[in-house]
Design a protein that fits this description.
Elements: E1 4-9, E2 18-23, H1 29-42, H2 44-53
Antiparallel strand pairs: 1-2
């Protein structure tokens, strides 16, 4: 089974940890982490959590 790596986000407001799975050494990990940080900074992450999970 291939090794895996993940871009991770701190727990959402409901206390659930979230993550995105990638193959080990994937070039997508760094850009995904940058985008998650940007979404948290501009409020988009919270808007999506509220829309889809009601928190």
């Amino acid at each position: 089974m291939p090794s895996r790596q993940a871009a991770a986000s701190p727990p959402d407001p409901a206390g659930q940890a979230v993550g995105i799975g990638f193959r080990k050494d994937s070039p997508l990990v760094a850009p995904a982490n940058v985008q998650l940080a940007a979404m948290k900074a501009n409020g988009r992450y919270q808007a999506l959590v509220t829309k889809w999970f009601g928190s």
